[in-house]
Amino acid sequence: MLVVGYGLPGYRELEPTLFVAITFLVMFGIMFGDVGHGGVLVLGGLATLVATRREKVRDVGMLLLLAGASSVGFGLVYGEYFGMRGWGLWYNPLEEGKTMELLADSIVIGVVIISLGLILNIINRFRRGDIVGGFLDKFGVVGAVFYWGVLALLMKILVYHEVDLHWIEVALLVVLPALALLLMALKEPIAYALRRRAGGAAHGDSLLLASVESVVDVFEGVLGYMANTISFVRLAAYAMSHAALLAATFLMAREVSRLVGGGGLGSAMGVVVVILGNILTILLEGIIASVQAIRLQYYEFFGKFFSGSGRAFRPFRLAERDAGSSPRP
């Protein structure tokens, strides 16, 4: 359902549903990690599956069920239970000193997803017989070499604080990415030369135009790599906003209970605030996490390898003839 929302795969494109099933659920769970809230989604999904036999509605129910299960899993990681802190496998998004760790983890997940998109693009290009594009495209082999080389260089400098590079490191982390950029810039001129040789060059096409187009494409690719990688910071941002909304809910509940007065009425009003706050968080953050996860799928992931230009298979059928009509001569 999510893939079709973007488009159908072409004849020689890999069908990406399996990869989406993993990456979408992981990203949604990171942003919406809470055992209680995930449990609500699971129950909603089960109720939808039981209540209807309509295929599209059942797809929504299955999506709710799986997304809720992912939320429960990450809720156990965070130790979040309807906004209350409890036992957790790792750390809470709002835990002191863990913010930068969560941001770094989000970037790592982004690098993995972008790298997967590059690998799928290379496979798709070769399956279509586009050898030049498979090697020299900004999301092809040389693009992957540039991206991974720059990431390794940044990690060595920013994470390990090592500025002095051995000559082998200079060759792998500086020279090789620079060579990859140069090869990317040669893609369109090489493609133009091959078209001319095959007699398929379009009218008005020229080597200068192909060179300018290639340079612009390289510049766009470099900016795209930077923007796409940083974009995954939103995973950490919305995980923290989810936890922050719940923390604010409990703070408001304590204030309402104090203002109303201690005892039964104050406690009851505090419970009402907690319930309403959790309902609001489930609705608001559930929608936001879904939209952001889909956005990361469509732009940062699909944009690397998936055209979505395919057409659904429609079997050929002969029109049925009315029972009372006579056959045509």
Notes on the protein architecture:
The protein has 329 residues and is mostly helical. The protein folds into two domains: 1-96 and 234-306, no CATH class; 130-231, no CATH class. 73% of the residues lie in helices and 1% in strands. It is built from twelve helices and two strands. Strands 1-2 form a two-stranded antiparallel sheet. Strand 1 (80-81) and strand 2 (84-85) form a beta hairpin. Helix 5 (99-127) packs antiparallel against helix 7 (141-159). The longest helix is centred in the last third of the chain and has 42 residues, at 264-305. The protein starts with a helix and ends in a 24-residue tail after the last helix. The model has no long low-confidence stretch (mean pLDDT 88).
SSE blueprint and pairings:
Elements lengths: L1 H5 L10 H15 L3 H17 L3 H24 L1 E2 L2 E2 L13 H29 L3 H6 L4 H19 L7 H19 L1 H12 L8 H25 L1 H28 L3 H42 L24
Antiparallel strand pairs: 1-2
Structural class: mainly alpha
Number of extended strands: 2
Total domain modules: 2
The H-and-E topology, N to C, reads as HHHHEEHHHHHHHH
Radius of gyration: 26 Å
The fraction of residues in strands falls at: under 5%
Which runs of at least 5 residues are low in confidence (pLDDT < 50)? none
Strand order of the largest sheet: 1-2
Q: What composes the largest sheet?
A: 2 strands, antiparallel
Give the overall shape: flat
Distance between the termini: 46 Å
Total helices: the number is 12
Provide the helix percentage: over 70%
Query: How confident is the prediction overall: mean pLDDT?
Result: 88
